[in-house]
What we know:
alpha+beta, Beta-Lactamase, Alpha-Beta Plaits, 3 domains, five-stranded antiparallel β-sheet, rod-shaped, disordered C terminus
Amino acid sequence: MGIRSKIFLAFLLCFGLVGWLSLVLLQQRMEAEFAALERVDLVENMGRVLKVMDASVGALNSQTRDWAEWTDMYEYVQAAERQQAWAQRNLDGQALDTADLSFVDILDRQGHVVLAVRTPGEATNVRVGADVRRQLVQAMQVAAAPARCGLLPLSQGLALVCAGRISRSDRTGDFRGAVLMGRLVDVRRVSQWQEQTGLGLRLLGADALPVQLDWWKDALPEHRLGLRDMGVQVQAQRNLMYAALTDVSGQMAATLEVSAPRELFARTQALQARVVAQAVLSSLCVAVLLAAAVHWLLVRRLRTFKAQLQSLASDAAWSRRIRVPGKDELSVLASEVNLMLDMIEGQVRDLTAQSMTDTLTGLPNRRAFEMRLALEFGRARRQEHPLSLLVLDVDFFKRFNDRYGHPAGDEALRTVAEVLCAACSRAEDLAARIGGEEFSVLLPNTPMDGAVDIALRIERLLAAKVLPHADSEVADYLTVSIGIATIHVLDETPHALVERTDRALYAAKARGRNRYHCDVPSLPKLKEAA
Length: 530
């Protein structure tokens, strides 16, 4: 994995981790906020239902008061037997149906039913218990007593009822009884409430409350149907809300269940999904942009840096320098590397010179000679130019060392080196020490006769030095034997040319030393340069 991929992965992981932590914190915050909003929404929903039901109770209360504070009603209660005609005209089933009432009971001071009127249908057999009647009448005995309204469990189901003190229209007169009006809470009425609130609701039994509920104390507004506590059961798609409803006696009468879809929760989930998607996309985009910036500012330049270093190392071109544009840490690093390359170049140059130079004479050594010979041999074969080689050996050099000592011997070798350099006047000529007292002279683009001239020049220059050699058998001064050979078609390799030159040297030594000898093959030579 390259550095670009690693950086991109690191950015992606970092932004992913930061994004994940941010999303977790945001989700917790959003859940808390939306839970509070959902709580408010649930309380408002339940309050809306109770408000609609309370409005129905209020309307019934107003109607009850109108009927109770009616002088004709007051007189009817005083003499019911004499007022039967009035009752038949004003208190029949049609009057109840017009007033949207299910039943009306006219009660005397003891709670006995003076007149019971029912609408046809389910309300026909409605019977209000004697205990309830007496309790309501007792509550009405106090002057200016307010109407008592609420729910009342009946055999036909729940009913909304109101009981009002019967009095004259000006609210005067002794207590004569009460009017009890009721409306059955049937399917039609529940459907009306559902239409008004837009919520699903049911009236259950008093003991129908679920066990697992989250109760909110005093969460509901004041109302005339029960307590202010509210129970909540959260489901996957809906919220169920419960409230305990009491009857006109303050006893548990029913359980109100309201169901509402979790629209706020669904919006929360959708919002969270969008936030997550946007956060992931943003993190990915930022990671890509940062990775692109890092690639442009760092990785691309590092690759250039690497390519230059690889090219420099593979070519052993220590004279090259790393070039990185800019003025930052990478360019400073390139400068430091270039300083190291300066040191390496100098060391390589010194080591190369040491590896290619004879330390005693300063001439190129065998390695340098062989490399140059291979180069010139190939060039001569390609261009069909002559190439000559001289191999020299100092005569009786061991005796010289034995008589004059090794320091004198070293000095004698340096003198021979000076002579070879003086004899080779051209820049392309190469004089080398190839070992001990043996030297070679490579003469590019030089035929045999030119090589002989160089050999004669070497002999003259060395003789002029007059280095005494008392133990020599050929002269009283230091001399050399020289083998000469020129490239030939039979020389397939540089080694073949060297072998022929060595043979010429052995021949010169065999013929008495202090002379040169040429190895001349019988086959024709290559074309000489003009």
